[in-house]
């Protein structure tokens, strides 16, 4: 039997429970359930794939029918688990502070990818002993530290320290991949990561895939940090915009450097969607911040508000087209799809409402025979999108009835867009349960209808509303600052990079004791970290002991010199007595 799906009130009850304590309690609860579902989906997916292979391979009708039945059963259980996962992804308020859930519509954050535990002990110890010719027991603490550092990346705190944890692992991985995880070594490690949206697993040996998953989590973390900010304050809105810009930067960084993803969440199409979603929300939050600071009600200010509001709607417009694509409908949570449509319609309505207010002000100015200022005319010139006759008339109009007609035309468009926003909102049970969102949509629609009713008795020309031009978007994606987190090379004792790396190889170390002759040791050193033998004199003690040109010097009289500069290495050799013991390797 497939596991029972939680009731429709399960996540709503979770929200109520979490409001007693810290918001992180709910996030932890949902993240834990997400991890459980990922494991269940992986198990059923393996069973499904195995049954399908049996169907193709079997020639026995009974066995094939039984395998087909089992494959269908496994597929149905996967769908049940994915439906619950979609419900978790639709818990938008889980990422808000408890005091904001009743007063502020949520943003759409996206989840961090989770990973399965990975034991690197066997692979690393084999590489250290076989490739580096060293005793791995001396590095067991570092191996376990790296292993725990990796596992922690799918359950980091939702703040800057969480971002630092991800950057720390990424930077450590950069170093470790050069030493211990490299295709040349045949390391045998398999990185398992689960799709952040549908939970399906992907298994790769590529370090590039591992890095991409970490950067994806950096973007996801910034989306969640933005979602928890109080956007009713200028400072909170500014922090939210900054987090969203960092999320956009992480996704754009991925798009430029990672391709052919084995999971849909990191495909080019989905990365573009998520980047555009964060961009739209950043523009929206910036608009919210400007509304907090806008105190004047002059026509020029209202025209500017219409201009900027349309830019928010335009950001959501391509997203609306994308979520209506059939391939997206089967993948993205229904809540996200509806919310994108709600936002596009809502901000389109507000843009028309502000344009109507501006023309209503101008109608009053014409009625009172006031002169419409040049500043207002310039604002109108930039408000409308096309150089059409209607737009030109709207810009140059000084007739009261013409401005009344334009105001009514914009109000009609606003009313229609409000109706669409409310309709899309009603399609999603998850959105319908978000009280501040429903209240915001209803209040905006009521305000527009009231203004339309107020102007119903005024005579105005019958006019089509010109298209409103969106303002320029000036968001600046912020790429991950990897250099902001410095890490110490866990496996520094293996030797300095790039010499002691997975790409290079060398002989087993040999220890040679050389007696100084009348002419000295008979060898010359060059270079640093490590120094190497640049010349061996014919017939010298060094040649007699088997020293070769090109040998790397690891130690002198038991002192490790791999990290020593050339001068320091020479000084150590010079300070030795008549006998000098070298530990050497020959690059191969």
From TrEMBL:
GO terms for biological process: negative regulation of stress fiber assembly. PANTHER family: LD12055P (PTHR23031:SF15), RHOPHILIN (PTHR23031). This is Rhophilin-2. InterPro entries: BRO1_dom (IPR004328), BRO1_sf (IPR038499), HR1_rpt_sf (IPR036274), PDZ (IPR001478), PDZ_sf (IPR036034), RHPN1_2 (IPR047138). Residues 106-497 form the BRO1 domain. Residues 64-98 form a coiled coil. It holds the Pfam family PDZ. Residues 511-588 form the PDZ domain. Transmembrane segments: none annotated. It comes from the Eukaryota. Keywords: Coiled coil.
């Amino acid at each position: 039997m497939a596991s029972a799906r939680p009731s429709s009130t399960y996540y709503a009850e979770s929200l109520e429970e979490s409001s007693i304590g810290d918001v992180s309690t709910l996030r932890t609860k949902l993240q834990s359930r997400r991890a459980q579902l990922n494991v269940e989906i992986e198990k059923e997916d393996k069973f499904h794939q195995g049954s399908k292979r049996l169907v193709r391979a079997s020639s026995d009708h009974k066995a094939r029918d039984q395998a087909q039945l089992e494959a269908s059963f496994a597929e149905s259980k996967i769908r049940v688990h994915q439906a619950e996962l979609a419900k978790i992804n639709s818990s938008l308020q889980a990422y808000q502070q408890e005091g904001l859930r009743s007063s502020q519509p949520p943003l759409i954050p996206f989840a961090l990818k989770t990973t399965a535990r990975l034991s690197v002990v066997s692979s690393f110890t084999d590489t250290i002993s076989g490739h580096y010719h060293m005793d791995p027991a001396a590095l067991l603490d570092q191996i376990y530290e790296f292993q725990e550092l990796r596992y922690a990346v799918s359950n980091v705190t939702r703040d800057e320290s969480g971002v630092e944890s991800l950057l720390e692992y990424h930077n450590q991985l950069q170093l470790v991949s050069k030493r211990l995880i490299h295709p040349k070594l045949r390391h045998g490690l398999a990185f398992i990561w689960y799709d952040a949206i549908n939970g399906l697993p992907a298994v790769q040996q590529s370090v590039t895939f591992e890095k991409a998953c970490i950067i994806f989590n950096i973007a996801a973390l910034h989306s969640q940090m933005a979602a928890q900010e109080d956007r009713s304050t200028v400072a909170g809105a500014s922090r939210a915009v900054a987090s969203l810009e960092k999320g956009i930067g992480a996704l754009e960084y991925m798009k430029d450097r990672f391709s052919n993803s084995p999971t849909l969440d990191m495909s080019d199409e989905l990365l573009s969607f998520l980047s555009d979603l964060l961009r739209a929300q950043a523009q929206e939050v910036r608009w919210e911040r400007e509304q907090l600071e806008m105190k004047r009600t002059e026509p020029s200010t209202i025209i500017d508000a219409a201009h900027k509001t349309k830019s928010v709607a335009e950001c959501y417009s391509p997203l609306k087209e994308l979520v209506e694509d059939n391939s997206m409908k089967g993948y993205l949570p229904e809540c996200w799809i509806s919310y994108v449509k709600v936002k596009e319609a809502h901000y389109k309505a507000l843009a028309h409402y502000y344009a109507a207010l501006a023309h209503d002000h101008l109608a009053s100015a014409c009625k009172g025979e006031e002169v419409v200022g040049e500043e207002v005319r310039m604002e109108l010139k930039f408000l409308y999108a096309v150089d059409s006759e209607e737009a030109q008339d709207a810009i140059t109009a000084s007739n009261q009835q013409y401005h009344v007609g334009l105001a009514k035309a914009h109000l009609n468009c606003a009313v229609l867009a409000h109706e669409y926003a409310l309709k899309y909102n009603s399609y999603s049970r998850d959105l319908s349960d978000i009280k501040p969102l429903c209240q915001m949509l209803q209040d905006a629609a009521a305000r527009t209808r009231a203004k339309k009713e107020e102007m119903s008795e005024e005579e105005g020309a019958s006019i089509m509303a010109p298209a409103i031009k969106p303002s320029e978007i000036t968001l600046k994606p912020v790429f991950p600052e990897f250099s902001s987190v410095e890490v110490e090379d866990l496996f520094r004792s293996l030797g300095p990079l790039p010499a002691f790396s997975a790409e290079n190889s060398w002989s087993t170390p040999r220890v040679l004791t050389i007696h100084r002759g009348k002419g000295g040791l008979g060898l010359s050193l060059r270079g640093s970290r490590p120094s190497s033998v640049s010349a061996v004199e014919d017939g010298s003690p060094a040649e007699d002991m088997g020293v070769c040109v090109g040998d790397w010097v690891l130690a002198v009289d038991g002192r490790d010199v791999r990290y020593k500069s050339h001068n320091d290495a020479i000084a150590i050799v010079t300070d030795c007595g008549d006998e000098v013991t070298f530990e050497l390797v020959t690059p191969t």
